[in-house]
Records
---
Amino acid sequence: MENILRGDKITLGTCYYPEHWDKSLWEDDLKRMLSVGIEVIRIAEFAWSKVEYREGEFNFDFFDEFLELAAKVGMKVIFCTPTATPPAWLTDKYPEVLNARQDGVLFRHGARRHYNYNSKKYLELTAIIVEKIAEHYAKHESIIGWQLDNEFNCEHWEFYSESDSLAFRVFLKNKYETLEKLNEAWGTMFWNQIYTSWDEIYVPRTTSFGNNNPHHLLDYKRFISDSVCRYAKLQSDILKKYIKPGDFITTNSIFGNLDCCRMTEESLDFITYDSYPNFGYCLNDFERMKDELNDRKWSINLTEARAISRIFGIMEQQSGSTGNHIGMEGPAPRPGQITLWTMQSIAHGADYISYFRWRTCTMGSEIYWHGILDYSGRDNRRLKEVGDVYKKLQCMKEVAGARFKAEVGIVKDYDNGWDSELDVWHGRIEWSSRMAWFKALEKSHTPFDFCYLDHISQEELNGYKVLVYPHAVILTEEGVNKLKNYVEQGGILLLGCRAGYKDSTGKCVMAKLPGLVSDLCGTDIPEYSYVAPDDAVPYAIWNGKKLPAAIFNDLLAPVNGGKVEAEYEDAYYAGTPALISKETGKGKTYYFGGAFTEETALSFLEGLGVASPYKDVLTLPACCEISVREKDGIKYIFVLNYSKENIEVTLHNELTNLYTGAIEKGEVTLEGYGTKVYRL
Ligand code: GAL
């Protein structure tokens, strides 16, 4: 059986819900999908009751019949475990399986994702349903892979049930062994929060003014992630006993409080991502989300997905208007946008694109979340565009398996990500710098990757010319050793303000800042401050380029071989070093005292010689994205026009247009929302 993500082609799929439609529609639906190039469907992720209508009464007829039809027409299937929507009989009889609000009110039956990952009963019932489904269906010829659950931690990424508190205690006992160590790690002497028994510890509860112990909160986030990872592994361990050789296990992510790298390493063959670029146009959020990037912002999420799996899939690719009864309402994709968003995913490393969903549902909470087809199922513009995408993919099979090419890596780690969600001092610089870097990289046409420091191999890390670790607030010895090795081997590392002031408990260190990287950076930080809101943003001039130092300033001093590169201007500390460098081995580290603005990030990209690596190949306006994938020494350049307007691209070299096979050079017009894929 042919499979996906094998590096031989890019495959199209769709999400299909046989349980939503009269059986008389099935065959025609599947044949019409095949006729436009959709070769895979994902099914059953919410259909528990179609297999176990009442507790212990299993009946496999419904999906047997459907799979028989799939085999007859030649449709391949990704089958799902149905645990995202436990049935009413289950939650009614065993309310301990439910998730709860922080104040203890249970999330009742009637929506979805209302369960918790730690109820012993739910783990037991999960194991039963997964085992029964796998045992019965896994050998079916049409099945090529499996999806676990649906969107772990979507909608809710916090869990407050009694089972969670019990499991949290076990997690903490394993981590700290003794209460003394836990009290020490959480700094419980502050405000007299000392624990004298494990039973006094709960998941974070409602407190007088919400300013809960931050070290407790950080461990709680780690605990939620651990809970999801254990739950995913429970399911995948069962599936592995039954699935056919070559069939894959995946899940559709990426949501909060979850270390997707760990989950993928332990339980999946690759991650899949659900890509809804139309969120960039949602009416209820438009003012908040509005900037020149709109749907282009989804490239940051696709970059995330690629940091987890170098080649990944899109399990749900937007194909229609969005919205449910309570929000997220947005327009239909304009002509060309389905292709644009599909190519955006492929440009970033996706070799499987499955559209959400085949036909728009006529009932329930998602009647506005449109699929390819509207309610009637009649042929429409969007279906035709999917067929056109398929034709394009036939001309670009050679791109499959090609790896995204980037010289710049943005370093991240889950601990710092989670800490920045808990701590406004950290959060303010983190989120601002994240978008500043993204915009500077995108608009200057500089491809980049995210690198998860505690998951990426040293060898892969050392492959980047420049690494930026915007705010390495929490540092560990292992992380620092990895960065040091990178620099010693010739890498250029750039750090922004506030590095190293916390340890992994989230407590502040008493060492001179920037703590564990002081020596690597040749920097001391005798003083620091927020930039006052009524002051101008201080800046430094470095190699003739302006470096605005936004939000927060570390006032630097060189130590141990550090060299002052630039000083603050326009501040009461004008003349104090703002940028210090230090050579170590074959490489160099830069410590910059501020948070990054788009202008600062661009100045660094240019100053460090990594901006716009394809400027000699083609010139194009900032409204276009360039992404490059590479295989066997051949580069594939994706040019994506996110604007409504036609734009001109100048090709300085002869390039082969993969869609047409034509050689192009000189001025080329790309229509509004148009895409091109060139072989270099
Ligand atoms: C996804 C989810 C789908 C569907 C879709 C549209 O997050 O996996 O089941 O709900 O959004 O809302």
---
Amino acid sequence: METEKATNFIESIIIDDLESGKIDSVVMRFPPEPNGRLHIGHAKAATFNFLTAQKFGGKCNLRFDDTNPVKEDADFCEQIERDIRWLGFEPAGVYYASDYFEYMRDCAVLLIKKGLAYVDESTPDDIRAMRGTLTEPGKNSPYRDRPIKESLALFDKMQSGEVPDGGMVLRAKIDMASPNMNMRDPVIYRVLHATHHRTGDKWCVYPMYDFAHPIEDAVEGVTHSCCTMEFEDHRPLYDWVIDNCDIEHKPHQYEFARLNMTDTVMSKRYLKQLVDSGAVDGWDDPRMPTLSGLRRRGVPAHAIVAFCTEVGLAKAVGVVNGAQFDDCVRDELNATAKRYMVVPDPIEVEIVNVADDFEDAVEVTEGGEYVVPHPTFIDPEKRETPVTTRKIRLSKHVYIDRADFMIEPPKGYHRLIPGGLARLKNSFIVRCVGYDCDNSGKVTKIRVEKTDEVKAKGVIQWVDKATAVDIKLRKLSAIVPNGEGDFTERINHDSLKVTTAKAEAAVAELKVGEAVQFFRIGYFARDEKFRDAFNTVVELKSSYKA
Ligand code: ATP
Ligand code: MG
């Protein structure tokens, strides 16, 4: 393999491991728990795992960490896999922790037989009380030194269904005085009478994360098991499980910082609260930082991967400005999105010096100057947006936006004014020859003349009146703006504003989720649920300065 350059500390480790011959090839995994939908933070972890494996010619699995049947279900698995594939990642394999339940149980039995695990009948409260604190060692459970035989029999009993939830647990026998709380005889199996979405009622004991995860990694031959910083203190336990379960393949855990972003919440637990409370229209509400929400909003997958790559990987935890994400989305759409004319606040305009049946077909290039093929890390082929053209009908009656006409303009106003010139975008220049107002002084109609002028300072968008389509624009803002305290008290219930607009006829053909630019207004995409409405993907201008 050609020598690759490291762009972060984990890549440096991988390069060393490959060069020293410690590993032959890289195996990684992205291991979500199917207890909610993926969010942009997961995208960072997924991007890192899939692209790092790809960079070094290795492979990356998608593995569902489905060890808690109470919170997980099959629909979340399906949605997660869809999101991962949407990002452009092809898992080498799709696996489930529950596939390894037998093997995990065998590992637990092995630990008992080695005198390294015991069944504890203390109540959950007692176990907690005996755990000690950061400054005080824990106390040994009275069951800690029970005979191996007894523990084996009781572990069987735990599996038989006779023991109620919380009645007994299996604990690793490590060190109740360890300065690392995770090493104080952690629970590795618990009784849980719950139906699992894959294994049904086969099991009534379920392994704990710290015991299950290293085994999952080992079974799949994972070489670099990367997770977020909060698991750093769990690493000794990870290694302990691998060593003491006599597992030959030894995966290693490395930790990196979580992605945090301004103006949102980022944990599945909190996002679930937003969904359950009805504050948003489901997991895929376009205001959600979930991948399904971003997709529904019209954010291209490429922009998400580009953002995650730009943010990079480090150990230091920080908060990324949400505006940086918007910049990535804007960069992508500026290069790829087609442009359409839309008028949010229409005033009728009559072109007085053309015949009643005047009709012109204005040919516009869709993209053209805007469409630049991007090099990419995933698939350069897919980047070429074909340059196409479309015809826009222009007739005697059109709409322009109220903001593009002023009777008494301030200095520097370059759009249409009484007696002034402006170009109808992609077409000829008109001169304003009159206008009507209602009683309140609001302009109700403008009259213009088609001219032969070749120069006008202002270019304004317009929509042909007869063929215009009525659409809705959904302006979205932060659902949980930054602030102190309980996030539920900061929920912005005014974060979705719907207005109407007149759009050129071709807008009727736009597909759900296809992001386009409404000229001078913003980037928009048709909503999946409200088909006559378009979500704001991102504003035109950046508010972020790096
Ligand atoms: P949540 O609190 O949102 O449920 P989690 O860590 O419990 O997050 P998992 O489904 O267990 O969610 O995570 C799958 C993978 O994604 C893990 O490797 C986890 O470390 C990583 N991950 C989760 N959240 C983030 C984040 N904000 N930034 C980077 N990686 C993340
Ligand atoms: Mg979790």
---
Amino acid sequence: MTQYQIVDDTDILPRDGTIKLHGEAGFAGMRKAGRLAAEILDAMAEMVRPGITTGALDDAVRSMTLDAGAVPATAGYRGYRHSCCISINHVVCHGIPSEKTLKDGDIVNIDVTPLLNGWHGDSSRMYLVGDVPLKARRLVDVTYECLMIGIEQARPGARLGDIASAIQTHAENHRYGVVREFCGHGLGRLFHDAPEVVHAGRAGTGPELKPGMFFTIEPMINLGKAGVKLLDDGWTAVTRDRSLSAQFEHSIGITEDGCEIFTLSPKERHAPPYEV
Ligand code: MF3
Ligand code: CO
Ligand code: CO
């Protein structure tokens, strides 16, 4: 049984498995945190180029986050030490920033989570490094479509399985694999909360969406098979078959008649190629 809880947005409630239903104060907080996440990702479009290290991108994310009066929620999260995750090519998610440089032809995901005034804005986008082969660009385009098709399902009365099914159908129509091991999640005052938002499943199943629910949708789509494995660093997830993987993530809130995307790009840099 799915349990819902109407919350007072001034409280920070524990992760107790209930789905929190927020009010106007929560929407206002998420709007600001989400906008900051989107502004940071907009700025990344001006920095991503061959030769830059992922560590330098992480430094820029940290500075922008702190300058805005926020903190990167990933720093100190379960022992993670960086301000974002940067996942290149066959890295599915949770790539760790380092001295590694971006190369011409790479596709790369940057995932940021500023915590601003007690609210989390969680978003990621793909970036193209120099000249990227058509097959890889196609994967990036379809992954963005998967996210937006999922978001189109998000309205009161729909179920989480409707989102999952729409994403899975679109990806598999292109013969791509949908990663099962990582999911979207409730968020708000907490970074990762109930419900678990899967990206493959059956329409009409799962918890019903209600106004005031906040969660992410963040499909990871592989050019090859869906399988992933974890590297020895305990964080980096890669495709088992070493095929390319792409991901986009938005944080949304369910409204009376649909949903609000908290992390929309102010500069309309929704998906590459980005005009900079
Ligand atoms: N931002 C990721 C997400 O979308 C979580 C990263 S957790 C980290 O949920 F510790 F790996 F940074
Ligand atoms: Co997330
Ligand atoms: Co994220």
